[in-house]
Structures are given as structure tokens and as C-alpha cells.
Design a protein that fits this description.
The protein is an alpha/beta fold. It is built from 15 helices and 11 strands. The chain is 48% helix and 11% strand.
């Protein structure tokens, strides 16, 4: 296999020495970039953008053309799996994703089946393969999925941005039904991520966007348990190369120990967590990814640089840090501020490594 020209992200995720701290941004291909909006307009809709490998490749590459990022992330959506299950995904203008057929009846839940990623989600695998060819081994490609619980939230509620009344009612009244959904989802996510890896993804990331809405006990039983099931079934090597995994639970700061013990290689942190304290807490068990508040990017270059330095200094000496935002970049972010962030991470971390003697 041809060696990557820039493998800094992979080295950081595996806690190996690197010359600087790598950086990529959650939602780095998105509405804050004018070229993305132009491509989306040409595609006709968000779903058409996701389901056309040419368009998906084009928008995946756009931020890399602007900024010296250390990774590409597949352009797709976390709801591709429930869409492939036949729930009728659609996007209402200004309202986000919705499902025509949310899961409410027991017979619907019992009838759920695991989609074949090579058949029902072939467009994603084709996009992964095409993106890898286009990247030409410049930087690694991150593949991803939503977590079983996060997917279940949309599948049961029928949309995002809810008070979780439907799914939490099911959790406490009919936990057997929710466990059935989660088990099917975990099987589907494992198969989906492994297919992405076989198609060329070099990192696997699980987005547990809504895990933080759960109580402590419910998080362990209904979210992390199934994330662990996925991690146990993931391909850890492809073409002789190690495939690192990242788990990001938004609002999961209280459960860092549990997440670090789940079998992942790296834990993503939201902006509410002090990264230095998180590192002291989990030790060298896992790498850490994060965790600048995305709202910092609405400020000035001086403020952005200062906030970047705070996080890098808090993490401290040594390896195992991937710089990122504490959640996705806002559509209102000036692109030049994203550039300031990327440049600051590279420059400051290089200087720190040199003063540390390369440690």
C-alpha cells in the first residue's frame, strides 16, 4: 500500500510521536464555505448531494483546497442507515432531517432488518472509494456513523431537536423494544463502518450526538454498551495498516473513564471539558480529540490564536492529541477564521514540540 504523504493524524490517534498536533474540523465540508453552497445548489437537495459520489467527493475535497487540514472526512449524513431501513428520510427547509415513518408500533420495531451496505448504501462506498482515489494518499480519510442510540433518537422521535419524550418513554416503559432497535442498529453500524474501511476509510468515527441526554445508568445501558459492541466487531486492520477508532459523545464529559475503556483508540471531547484534566483522568489509555468551542471562530484572529494556545498548553507535552472543535463548525463561521485556527494549531504545536525536544 502506498504510504501517506501526511500520516500525522494516524500517528496522533495511535499515540505515536509526531512533529505537530494534527487538526481537522467536525463538519469541515459544509455551509460556511461558499463553494459548498454552490455545489449543493447544483445537486438540487442535501440528499442528492449525499447520494451522488461525484458531488460527495467534490465537497469532501473543498476544505482541503482551502486549508492545510490533516484529514478528510467522508461527506455523508449519520441518517443514511435508518434511511436504508425504509423509514423515509427527508429534509424540510429550515427544519432539519425528518422521517416519514418513525418507529412507534411494536410490529414496526420487530420488523427492522440490518441493511446490506454493499447494496442499500452502495453510494456511500462508491463515494469513499472515489474520495480515496482523489486524495491520492495526501491525508487520511475518516469514515463515520452515528451511534446506535443517536440513530434511535431520530428513528423513534421522527426528527431532531426534540425533548426525547418518545424515546425516553420507550426506554423506561418498554426497554425491551429499545434494546431491539439498538441491537439492530449496532449490527448495522458495524457492517456499515467495516464496508467503509474495506472501501478505503482509514479511521472510523462514531458520533454519539445525543448520548449526553441520558442519565448516568441509562448512558451505560443504552448507549455505551452498543458502542462497545460495534468497536468489538470493527476491522482493526486493512491492507496491513492499523485502522484507529474515535468515539465522540456530546455531553459525555462525566463518562470519560467508561468511554476510554470501551475499546476505542481516541475519545472526542466537547467544549465543556478541560482537556488537561481529561488527559490526567484517562492517562495514556487513549488519544484525545478536541475541543475548541466553535463559537470562538466568530471572534478575532488574536482571540482564536489565544484560545488554541490554551488548549494545546492544557493538553501539555507528549503525543496523542488531535485538535478539533468541541462540536461541528457553524454555518455562520467566516472561512478565514477557520484558516486562522488551522494555521495556529500547526504553528504553536510545532513550536511546543521543538521546545520539548520533540517529545
Amino acid at each position: 500500500m502506498t504510504k501517506l504523504k501526511n500520516d500525522t493524524l494516524l500517528r496522533a490517534l495511535l499515540r505515536q510521536p509526531a512533529d505537530y498536533t494534527p487538526v481537522w474540523l467536525m463538519r469541515q465540508a459544509g455551509r460556511y464555505l461558499p463553494e459548498y453552497n454552490q455545489t449543493r445548489a447544483r445537486a438540487g437537495s442535501f440528499l442528492d448531494l449525499c447520494k451522488n459520489p461525484d458531488f460527495a467527493t467534490e465537497v469532501t475535497m473543498q476544505p482541503l483546497a482551502r486549508f492545510p487540514l490533516d484529514a478528510a472526512i467522508l461527506f455523508s449524513d449519520i441518517l443514511t442507515i435508518p434511511d436504508a431501513m425504509g423509514l423515509g428520510l427527508y429534509f424540510a427547509d429550515g427544519e432539519g432531517p425528518k422521517f416519514e415513518r418513525p418507529l412507534r408500533e411494536e410490529w414496526e420495531i420487530r420488523a427492522l432488518t440490518v441493511p446490506d451496505p454493499w447494496v442499500h448504501l452502495r453510494y456511500v462506498m462508491d463515494a469513499v472509494s472515489q474520495i480515496r482515489r482523489t486524495l491520492d494518499n495526501s491525508v487520511p480519510l475518516i469514515g463515520f456513523s452515528g451511534s446506535p442510540f443517536t440513530l434511535a433518537c431520530y428513528m423513534v422521535e421522527g426528527c431532531g431537536g426534540t425533548d426525547f419524550r418518545q424515546i425516553k418513554t420507550m426506554l423506561y416503559q418498554r426497554p425491551d423494544l429499545l434494546h431491539h432497535i439498538l441491537d439492530i442498529n449496532a449490527q448495522a453500524v458495524t457492517s456499515y463502518l467495516n464496508a467503509q474501511i474495506e472501501s478505503g476509510a482509514q479511521v472510523a468515527m462514531i458520533f454519539d450526538t445525543w448520548g449526553g441526554a441520558l442519565s448516568h445508568a441509562a448512558y451505560q445501558e443504552f448507549s455505551l454498551r452498543y458502542i462497545g459492541q460495534i468497536l468489538a466487531g470493527l476491522k482493526r486492520e486493512q491492507g496491513g495498516e492499523r485502522i484507529p477508532s474515535i468515539v465522540f459523545t456530546k455531553g459525555g464529559g462525566l463518562w470519560l473513564d467508561s468511554i476510554a475503556n470501551s475499546g476505542c483508540d481516541a475519545v472526542g471531547l466537547d467544549w465543556t471539558v478541560n482537556i488537561g484534566e481529561a488527559r490526567r483522568h484517562v492517562g495514556d489509555k487513549v488519544a484525545l480529540q478536541g475541543n475548541l468551542d466553535p463559537a470562538v471562530l466568530f471572534s478575532t484572529p488574536e482571540v482564536i490564536t489565544a484560545e488554541v494556545e490554551k488548549i494545546l498548553s492544557s493538553y501539555g507535552k507528549g503525543n496523542g492529541h488531535v485538535f478539533n472543535l468541541g462540536h461541528g463548525i457553524s454555518q455562520f463561521t467566516p472561512p478565514e477564521n477557520a484558516r486562522t485556527l488551522v494555521d495556529a494549531v500547526h504553528a504553536i504545536s510545532r513550536k511546543q514540540r521543538q521546545s520539548d525536544g520533540g517529545r
